[in-house]
C-alpha cells in the first residue's frame, strides 16, 4: 500500500514542490507577466505540464529562461521515471 501511495503522490508532490520553490525565489517570479493568482496559476500549470509530460503552457509566463528550462526539465525527468520506479518496486513486492 505504501508503494501505491508513493506512486499516486509523487507527481503532485513534484509539481507543488517546484512551484513553491519558484514562487519563493525572486528570479522565477520576475518571469510572470500577470501578478496575483493568475501568475501563480501560470507557474503551477507550467510545472504540472512538465511533470506530466504534456508540453502545453499558459501564454503569460516567460518560461524561456535558464531557471524554467532547467527546473521544468528536471520535473519532466522525475515525473516520468519516479512513478516507474515505484511501479517496479510494487511489482517486485508482489512477486
What topology emerges from the helices and strands here?
Elements: H1 2-24, H2 26-29, H3 37-51, H4 66-94
Helix pairs in contact: 1-3, 1-4, 3-4
Overall description:
It comes from Streptomyces sp. SID7499. This is Potassium-transporting ATPase subunit KdpA. One of its GO terms (molecular function) is P-type potassium transmembrane transporter activity. By secondary structure, this protein is mainly α. The protein has one domain. It has four helices and no strands. Helix 1 crosses helix 3. It is elongated and about 50 Å long. It starts with a helix and ends with a helix. The mean pLDDT is 90.
Descriptive key words:
95 residues, 4 helices, 75% helix, 0% strand, transmembrane, KdpA, Potassium-transporting ATPase subunit KdpA
